[in-house]
UniProtKB/TrEMBL annotation:
Organism in which the protein naturally occurs: Leishmania lindenbergi
Keywords: Glycosyltransferase, Membrane, Transferase, Transmembrane, Transmembrane helix
Domain of life (superkingdom): Eukaryota
Transferase recorded as keyword: yes
Annotated TM spans: 21-42
Gene Ontology terms for molecular function: glycosyltransferase activity
The name this protein goes by in its record: Beta galactofuranosyl glycosyltransferase
Family to which this protein belongs: Belongs to the glycosyltransferase 2 family.
PANTHER family recorded: GALACTOFURANOSYLTRANSFERASE GLFT2 (PTHR43179:SF12), RHAMNOSYLTRANSFERASE WBBL (PTHR43179)
Length: 498
């Protein structure tokens, strides 16, 4: 069975590369000015006024907050956030959302140290957000205090929430924490999953134009889900390989080393490349409000996530998890939706969101702990752990490259599945934690020195890539799925830096 929709052709982008390139210097200058000036500008706002981003660009249905004298940028941020989630923070009143397609149903914002950029984004957006989730990564004290204050201000509502885990658990894990929450919601409340960095600036009207298209593209897949649920309920069946029948290859609960989609049936999992590429042909997967594939601010449809699965958490601590997801979407036949009309005024992504180097390059105040986190994370990323994993994955599972014929020539894992190689991930996490501790203790250590220290520590341990194993054996522990364990229990306590 091949799934098709009746779909009409939605907006597509094209061209404009030269014009965008010519505009980039001016766009970057504008972005820098915005980030530098916004906090000070907000602090000077008087009792009877609002930021221009709210007074001139708000959707007509947005509920305005009572005019009260702000005490600084944080209060103005709270006002902007309240406008986004349609809550009066002073009276703890939740206002109903308009029954329209101009709101974000669910958005996740992974955060580390970028408080000024969080303020900028909330005051730049002009549409309602029905559910907003911040996932804190890195446990930097200044961000912890910031988010605690946010939750104290909005303790009466569930429209904004904070998710946390100890330490730096990686960007893919941050997305997956929110994604599991998203997938618990009814389809009508969660037709697409929006992901964003905080260091983006959108031109006025971009989201108002994109969101109705996103809803239309996502709803095309609703009826397919019921058929998939019924089919997966019959597994294991004649399509299930013998090696996966006694311990089925299905896990979505974050308790096991194995992570799979919920609804990609074995019938499609083990098809040839040519057959599998027709499985969801015509359906939309990745959604972009711009004419470019800018994955600092994008969404994925519910159908695509239910069958493609989760972001690969072996891409630790960041990078390649999005390109891995896109490759899997394409291999199932999903296409991208890009909204044209923004070639001359595209969305601006200021700098890499996972490194947040802008905070230092723009001379914004950064705590000692945040500086150490930035420097340590930069060193980890320069060691290319994610890139090394992505390369090894392509060599083993044989489906990253579209010229390959099947997803299961080597380790047998279908494209919606991955195994968390926990000893490798925990070793990298341990390296980063100890490096950051050293950088807090001695802020004079330069970035090049930190990178050399990290390379020496990994050499002493042995190349962490040796910890990549055959997933078809590692996913199980005898007759059951292998459970994840705490890193502290898995690895010995040991000093890694001399």
């Amino acid at each position: 069975m091949v799934f098709h929709h009746s779909g009409k052709k939605l907006l597509q982008g094209g061209g404009g590369v030269f014009r965008r390139a010519a505009l980039m210097p001016f766009m970057f200058i504008f972005a820098v000015i915005t980030i530098l000036v916004l906090p000070g500008f907000l602090e000077q706002i008087t009792e009877a006024t609002y930021p221009p981003s709210l007074t001139t660009a708000l959707a007509p249905t947005t509920t305005r907050q009572p005019t009260q004298a702000p005490s600084g940028p944080f209060d103005r941020y709270l006002d902007c956030l309240a406008a986004r989630i349609n809550v009066d923070r002073h009276t703890a009143t939740e206002y109903p959302f308009p029954n329209d397609n101009i709101s974000i149903p669910y958005i996740v914002l992974p955060v580390t140290v970028e408080e000024p950029m969080m303020i900028s984004l909330m005051c730049n957006l002009t549409v309602h957000i029905r559910r907003l989730v911040y996932v804190q990564n890195g446990s930097v004290p200044s961000m912890t205090a910031f988010l605690d204050a946010v939750m104290a201000a909005f303790k009466s509502t569930r429209r904004v929430r904070v998710m946390r885990k100890r330490g730096n658990f990686g960007y893919a894990t941050a997305l997956n924490m929110a994604l599991r929450d998203f997938l618990q919601l009814p389809f009508d409340e969660a037709p697409f999953f929006f992901m964003a960095n905080n260091d983006v600036l959108l031109p006025g009207g971009m989201m108002e134009k994109a969101l109705p298209l996103f809803y239309s593209a996502s709803r095309e897949g609703r009826d397919v889900l019921d058929a998939l649920e019924a089919e997966v309920a019959t597994e294991p069946n004649e399509h299930t390989p013998q090696r996966f029948r006694d311990v089925p290859l299905r896990s979505t609960d974050a308790r096991h080393a194995l992570v799979t989609s919920r609804l990609l049936p074995d019938r499609i999992r083990y098809q040839s490349l040519e057959q599998r590429r027709t499985a969801f042909a015509g359906f939309y997967g990745d959604l972009y409000p711009d004419s470019r594939d800018q994955r600092a601010f994008w969404a994925v449809t519910r159908l695509a996530l239910e069958v493609t699965g989760y972001f690969d958490e072996n891409c630790y601590p960041a990078y390649h998890e999005d390109t891995d997801m896109i490759q899997r979407l394409r291999l199932l036949g999903f296409k991208a939706l890009r909204v044209s009309g923004w070639e001359k005024t595209p969305m601006i992504h200021i700098v890499g969101g996972s490194q947040i180097a802008a905070l230092k390059s723009l001379a914004l105040p950064v705590s000692k702990e945040a500086q150490a986190f930035l420097k340590g994370s930069h060193a980890i990323i320069r060691r290319r752990f994610s890139a090394r994993y992505a390369s090894a994955k392509c060599r083993s599972v044989m489906w990253c490259n579209s010229t390959k014929v099947a997803p299961n020539k080597q380790d047998g894992m279908p494209l919606d599945a991955f195994v968390i190689y926990q000893r490798r991930v925990c070793t990298i996490e341990q390296l980063e934690e100890q490096l950051i501790d050293r950088l807090i203790a001695d802020p004079s250590i330069s970035s090049p020195t930190a990178i050399r220290m990290l390379a020496n520590a990994e050499r002493d341990l042995g190349n962490v890539d040796r910890l990549l194993l055959d997933g078809t054996f590692y996913y199980r522990n005898g007759s059951t799925l292998r459970l994840l364990t705490d890193c502290a229990a898995l690895l010995p306590s040991r000093p890694l830096f001399r």
